[in-house]
């Protein structure tokens, strides 16, 4: 994919210029990622007297959590843990040992948001043994699984889980298993030159106050890492599907699935497994925001068209929450995504004869073929349960999404070998409504349809 058009670049640059000036940010960088590469980069403000570049480091705060979560999912895929395991199985000795790994990843464990002691983001950290020793009954704020409650402490426990399984600290594991394979060589636990200094901007005057920066030690998995726009662009590409062998694509898709929403009925924001989710402008985005004293950052990715967007700034507060979605809106306005060209593909004859209408009772459904012998079953005319199914080695299909996710679809043939009906976890689909020759549960009235 080539860089964005000149007119698009100008509109994107104007948006971040308005942001930097209006929000009074010492410096601001932003990038658009398409098909795994930076298609546009822009910056405003100064770092050490010069415009920040793609290699200028900023602290990325809680984006660190997503990288820790990636190693946790690798451990799951290696059968070293189950997401339903209680954290006490892997990190014993805490008063909240019953909460599960999945609940910690999705911030549904009900733990307190912050660790005991002083404000951890602005003070030197403590060893993990000391942190665990300070935990008590007040660590649990809500019943596990009841609601979304963001917890930095929860990711401290997940970082310790990673360390105990890998035999190295969480940062070494993240570097070896995530950063190095993705080519993120400029993402580090502590700053390296050239890096931005974190500032607080006075609310009523145009003056700055440097913010402190410390090694968070036990709390580091919640927000320690520093990165660059170039490296964070590689992370955006990963979230959009360029996994580079770090995770199975199906595992990454699992992380992007909503486990909880954090804004009730509106459902514009939520969490998967270590990933924040948002819906904006017709897009469903996955990524994470980051906030530490002196720094703000966010990265979003849309795997449907392999687009990502990010920003990094060195201010404690002030950046607009809609900056990135507005950048995506500019991109969509100036260079709308073109769908891939349709091309015919081969279809196995035994599957081709299954396509077309099927009926669940009197309700009509359409069965269509997907790549690699997959199937799509969806109601005709809208309204109803639609699912995609992936072929299994035993001749059945496994539901991928919707109501039938994880359920089995089987083809039942007649004695002469012709297709009889579909059995979807006891629901029978027939070629005609309530086909009397099929094995419809409860039978079909012998007098048939009547006026």
TrEMBL record:
Segments forming domain Beta-lactamase-related: 20-326
Record-annotated DUF7586 domain positions: 348-431
Record-linked SUPFAM superfamilies: beta-lactamase/transpeptidase-like
Top-rank lineage group of the source organism: Bacteria
PANTHER family in UniProt: D-ALANYL-D-ALANINE CARBOXYPEPTIDASE, D-ALANYL-D-ALANINE-CARBOXYPEPTIDASE/ENDOPEPTIDASE AMPH
Protein name: CubicO group peptidase, beta-lactamase class C family
């Amino acid at each position: 994919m080539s860089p964005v058009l000149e007119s698009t670049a100008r509109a994107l640059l104007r948006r971040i210029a308005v942001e930097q000036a209006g929000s009074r940010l010492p410096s601001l960088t932003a990038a658009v990622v398409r098909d795994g590469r930076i298609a546009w980069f822009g910056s405003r403000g100064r770092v050490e007297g010069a415009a920040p570049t793609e290699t200028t480091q900023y602290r990325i705060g809680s984006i660190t959590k997503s990288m820790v979560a990636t190693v946790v999912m690798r451990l799951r895929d290696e059968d070293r843990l189950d997401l339903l395991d209680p954290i006490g199985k892997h990190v014993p000795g805490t008063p909240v040992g019953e909460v599960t790994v999945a609940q910690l990843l999705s911030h549904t464990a009900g733990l307190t948001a912050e660790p005991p002691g002083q404000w951890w983001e602005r003070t030197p950290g403590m060893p993990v043994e000391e942190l665990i020793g300070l935990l008590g009954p007040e660590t649990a704020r809500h019943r596990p699984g009841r609601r979304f409650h963001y917890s930095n402490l929860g990711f401290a426990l997940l970082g310790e889980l990673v360390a105990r399984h890998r035999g190295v600290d969480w940062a070494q594991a993240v570097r070896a298993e995530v950063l190095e394979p993705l080519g993120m060589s400029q993402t580090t636990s502590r700053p390296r030159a050239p890096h931005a200094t974190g500032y607080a901007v006075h609310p009523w005057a145009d003056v700055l106050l440097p913010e402190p920066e410390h090694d968070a030690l036990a709390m580091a998995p919640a927000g320690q890492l520093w990165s660059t726009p170039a490296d964070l662009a590689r992370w955006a590409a990963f979230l959009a599907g360029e996994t580079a062998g770090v995770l199975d694509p199906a595992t990454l898709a699992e992380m992007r699935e909503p486990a909880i929403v954090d804004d009730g009925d509106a459902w514009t924001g939520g969490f998967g497994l270590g990933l924040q989710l948002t819906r904006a402008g017709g897009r469903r985005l996955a990524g994470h925001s980051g906030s530490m004293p002196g720094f703000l950052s966010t990265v979003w990715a849309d795997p449907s068209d392999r687009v990502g967007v990010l920003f990094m700034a060195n201010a404690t507060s002030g950046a607009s929450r809609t900056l990135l979605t507005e950048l995506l809106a500019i991109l969509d306005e100036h260079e709308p995504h073109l769908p891939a060209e349709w091309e015919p593909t081969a279809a196995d004859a035994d599957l081709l004869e299954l396509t077309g209408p099927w009926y669940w009772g009197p309700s009509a459904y359409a069965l269509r073929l997907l790549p690699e012998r997959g199937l799509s079953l969806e109601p005709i005319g809208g309204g109803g349960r639609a699912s995609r199914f992936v072929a299994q080695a035993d001749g059945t299909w496994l539901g991928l999404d919707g109501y039938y996710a994880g359920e089995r679809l089987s083809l039942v043939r007649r004695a002469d070998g012709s297709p009889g009906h579909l059995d979807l976890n006891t629901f029978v689909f027939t070629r005609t409504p309530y086909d009397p020759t099929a094995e419809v549960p409860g039978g079909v009235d012998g007098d048939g349809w009547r006026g």
